[in-house]
Design a protein that fits this description.
By secondary structure, the protein is mainly beta. 6% of the residues lie in helices and 39% in strands. Strand 6 and strand 7 form a beta hairpin. The longest helix has 9 residues, at 23-31. The two termini are 26 Å apart. The mean pLDDT is 92. It holds the Pfam family DdrB.
């Protein structure tokens, strides 16, 4: 089994993985270097809500960063994403549990299929969303 990574400098690198049990460890090892595998799906990576507090960002080649003003951001492929807490919605039209969305404003260079519309003319790109689901220890920071 192999994983194709893109290094932080844009190089494509194939890494051998002995078996599926080593998959997360391999993603963590190269993710700590800022290397990524695959593309972020439209709407972002979906993860269980209860995994947000101790999520291991290296799994997707990202890291937490605190700016000089004290705001926490998630850095992924050179882009800074903001953490947004979304309240639960319970209306006649829809019911959604609370969520944490990691997103940034869209840029003109972002492909159309990853852009999401917000109020007005504003568009954004989502890296990950933590909503519902059952906690999975494999996504947590190693102890």
């Amino acid at each position: 089994m192999q994983i194709e990574f893109r290094s932080d400098l844009g190089a494509k690198v194939l890494v051998d993985v002995p078996d599926e049990r080593a998959l997360e460890d391999t993603l963590r090892k190269y993710g700590r270097l800022g290397w990524t595998s695959g593309e972020v799906p439209p709407g972002g990576y979906p993860f269980p809500y209860d995994n947000f507090a101790d999520f291991d960002w290296s799994l997707i080649g990202a890291r937490k960063w605190t700016n000089p003003e004290g705001d926490v951001r998630i850095i992924h492929r050179g882009q800074a994403y903001k953490i947004r807490e979304l309240e639960a919605v319970d209306s006649r039209k829809m019911t959604l549990p609370a969520a944490v969305k990691i997103s940034r404003g869209a840029k003109s260079t972002d492909p159309e299929h990853v852009r999401e519309k917000a109020d007005g003319e504003f568009e954004y790109v989502t890296l990950a969303i933590f909503r519902g689901g059952k906690r999975q220890e494999r996504y947590a920071l190693p102890r």
